[in-house]
Specification:
The complex is a heterodimer of chains A (about 325) and B (about 290).
Chain A (H helix, E strand, L loop, with lengths): L17 H4 L1 H33 L2 E4 L2 E5 L3 H8 L4 H34 L5 H13 L2 H11 L6 H8 L16 H13 L1 H12 L3 H9 L4 H12 L1 H16 L3 H7 L12 H10 L9 H29 L4
Antiparallel strand pairs in A: 1-2
Helix pairs in contact in A: 2-15, 3-4, 3-15, 4-8, 4-9, 4-12, 5-9, 6-8, 6-13, 8-13, 9-12, 12-15, 14-15
Chain B lengths: L1 H9 L9 H27 L3 H6 L11 H9 L2 H32 L5 H13 L6 H10 L6 H25 L3 H9 L4 H9 L4 H17 L2 H6 L8 H11 L4 H21 L1 H8 L6
Classes of the chains: A mainly alpha (about 325), B mainly alpha (about 290).
Chain lengths: ~325, ~290
Amino acid sequence: MGFIRRSSPKARPMPVSPKQARTLKHRSWVAFLVVPPVVFMSLFVVYPILSAFAYAFYEWRGLARGEFVGLANFKEVLLGATMAPTVWNAFLHNVYALVALMIIQNGGGFFLAWLLYKEPFGFRFHRVAVFVPVVLSTIIVGFLWKLFLNPNFGIINQAIYSIGLDSWAKPWLGDSSTALGALILANAWHFVGFPTLVYLAGMQRIPSEIIEAARLDGTTEWQLLKNIVWPLVAPSTTILFTLLFIGAFNWFEIPYVMVGLDGSPFGSTDVLGLVFYRTAFGNQSASIQNFGLGSALATLIFLFIVVFASMLTLWLRRREIQF
Amino acid sequence: MIAMAKSSPASSSSRQPVSFAFLAQVILIANSFVMLYPVVVMVLSAFKTTGEIFEHPFALPDFTQVHNFAKVLGETSMPTYFVNSIIVTGISILLILVLGTMAGYAVARYESRTNTFILLFFLAGLMLPLKLAVIPLFILLRDLNLLDSRWSLIVTYTAIGLPSAVFIMAGFLRSLPAELEDAARIDGASEPRIMWSVMLPLARPPMAIAAIQNAVPIWNDFFFPLVFIQTDSYKTLPQGLTTFMGEYTTDWGMLFAGLTIAAAPITLLYIALSRQFIQGMTAGAVK
């Protein structure tokens, strides 16, 4: 990048302001401010992340690092006879969750934000209400919906029985055709308030003259939403879609609490987060742990997220309009 | 879920072309109902016996029946989990604010060739999910003898929260006028004194934002305790809740009381300070 250093920085005379002249004392003060946070970050973030890549190239016996095995762990994760089918099955479920949540959670959030944007009667109440589940712990949300979805005594089936639609009642979490959908809806209930309020803030930043001008021109509500509001909240869309993308491929808590570590029934709710935890830290039924395979899987998830999230961000950024 | 909520009440006002405002109001009311009703059922069920929950799931309970709550608080480890959550969240936030303010102040108020490097360093920390480095972190904490202790969580949460605090603090501190510092310098104040007595008293609002933005995820986190903590007396609330739910699987009155107690502090705090919570939690996504 044409970066030429002709002499060592010391040899080059630096313009020194009188303020900086009290050098040693001043420098040690700045160092006192900067060094502890940087050391802390290096030890607990940079070092673990760099090690995570390195660990994937070794064989592990419990907590002890064994021999260097090159790409063998990666090969086992992506192509191995025992592990690869589980990984790809889980990956597919992450993709389903991502697509469904894009529509229900982010799409629903955009729609709700538009209704709130007009500041209708009860606006403040609705704004606070939609965000209540967001502040709750995922563990509370997961257990709550697990109880509600209980086949015999959960309020969902109880409500279905009480209106006489008995045939609609299902063991939602025990049926492999509905379990993943139930987890996705529980997640959407938990988080829909977040995109709602981020979109609302985005809409409130649109200069009101633009919307008024469109209204005077007789634009329909739908045209206004599609041609004016949606393009102008593009910065919010960029960040929400990127966050959802990262979240969907890190999905762990809701499945763990609601269907357990094995992604039951029959792996129909298995996701990469569960596979990673089982591989790295074992589970109750088979207390085996393999840090080599776990690190390889974590590295692959990480690279996937970094590559696709950056591409997604760049692509979404191009839609953004300056105003 | 929204589509479901939309169709049922709106159908009563059929045929006539309903006005947009009316339809919007119906949807918003239905949505708020869907958001709040599960929480309400949770609280109501906590006052019922398991038999009452099974037979009359939607009925109002006798609010004088507080034996579920008494049992959760008196006979389970829930109070211990609670205290652990307060200790872990409190110390983590304190460390995040202290270290974040130090780095943010240095970057914002002193010219240095290393500033860009330091900001990039923290920016990387902001982007990388530490969850995926949990294996090396686990080994590191074991080598430092911190595994299975509250400190394992405190250092992890501090590391995760620090980058955002640096950016929030640096962004704010950079906006303060240089005249403030210069006036104090002419009066002969030392650099630490300027920071402590002149600049930091002005920086309370961004500190509150950084604190809320980090406190909610830390208070609610489940993944790191699951990996790091085994000893029951060190468990935090979300992890302790899974132990508790496993012990009382068939006693639904107890389960709902446990969930209600676990949810109460943050929900009440949110209702009291909703503006600050919303501002703090969406701070990263709203420019």
